[in-house]
Amino acid sequence: MSIGSSTLIERLRAFEGRQVGPPETGADAVNQPMIRHWVEAIGDENPVYTDPEAAAGSVHGGIVAPPVMLQAWVMRGVRPRPRAGGNAQDDLMVLLDDAGFTSVVATNCEQEYVRYVRPGDHLSTTSTIESVSDEKHTALGAGHFVTTRVEYRDQHGELVGTMRFRILKFRPKQKGEAADRPRRPRPAVTLDNAFFFEGAKAGKLLVQRCASCGRLRHPPRPMCPSCRSLEWDTVEASGRGVVYSHVVVHHPQVPAFEYPLAVALVELEEGTRLVSNVVGVDPAELRVGMPVEVEFVAFDDDLTLPQFRPAETAARR
Q: How many CB atoms lie within 10 A of CB 200?
């Protein structure tokens, strides 16, 4: 390394508290078409997002956007618009690159919503480099965690939400370096979804069902989006479905997984959809509409997850 470690830490810490660049305003205001695209893709049928009549009678008094869309209103696009002025985060990344930390992987994101945004709100963001960690040793390699805090404000300057986004800028291990494969990342288990993971360990694909109206829903959540009931039970799914959508991940490569990694949104014959891996198939042959069946894979003594394989392969097995 061309930069002494103590000098590097001092130079990295100098970025803490610096604003990344001038505020950036989203290309478009919050709008109904984008909200509709989002909820249709996610499968969220809450009427306060799309039905003016129902929304008018709600506590919101009109259409609101799903809070988790916060980033969507300020994304810079497939062909990003040029940034105005300098960018402290780019300078920080160059410094880390020069020190050999050339790879990056996102580690976590925390969002806080101050109020709902509505059609017509035009959001802007101000980003600040909140912290840069000491050198840490991870399964990916040695690196530094960089945390950025983003504030989202409307056209009047009112704060509507915040986000902390953390990445690991790391030095990839060289070929020949010994590296034991780490455990697969643990899911976040809550009172609402524990049944799903317990069922998987028992070889059952369980789907949450509203005890009041009978609607099935996934991912699990405390309230029914149709009748607002908090009462629920579960049903065991057949495990059969089709590939509704899919991606094949090549990079960045996390040691706990094998690559290329086929990830699919599977539509079960019961009607709900869930994200999982597809195994037993060449990722290049994965296609929308492919019939698949569940297979429960025990990754270790504590974690069993439903995976899917082509139905014809499952039948032969």
A: 21
Is the separation of the CB atoms in 114 and 105 below 8 Å?
A: no
Query: Which two three-digit tokens encode residue 40?
Result: 């249709």
Q: Which secondary-structure segment (H or E) carries 170?
A: strand 159-170
For residues 132 and 197, give the distance between their C-alpha atoms in angstroms, rounded to a whole number.
Answer: 35
Q: Which backbone phi and psi does 229 adopt, to 5 degrees?
A: -75, 145
CA–CA separation, 291 and 267 (whole Å): 10
* Cα separation, 121 vs 35, whole angstroms: 13
For the stretch 89-103, pLDDT in tens is 999 999 999 999 999
DSSP character for 69? G
Amino acid letter for position 118? R
CB 44 within 8 A of CB 225: yes
Of 19, 125, 27, 118, the residue nearest 78 (C-alpha): 27
**pLDDT tens readout for residues 209-244:** 999 999 999 999 999 999 999 999 999 999 999 999
**The pair of three-digit structure tokens given for residue 131, joined into one six-digit string:** 């912290």
CB atoms within 10 A of CB 161: 21
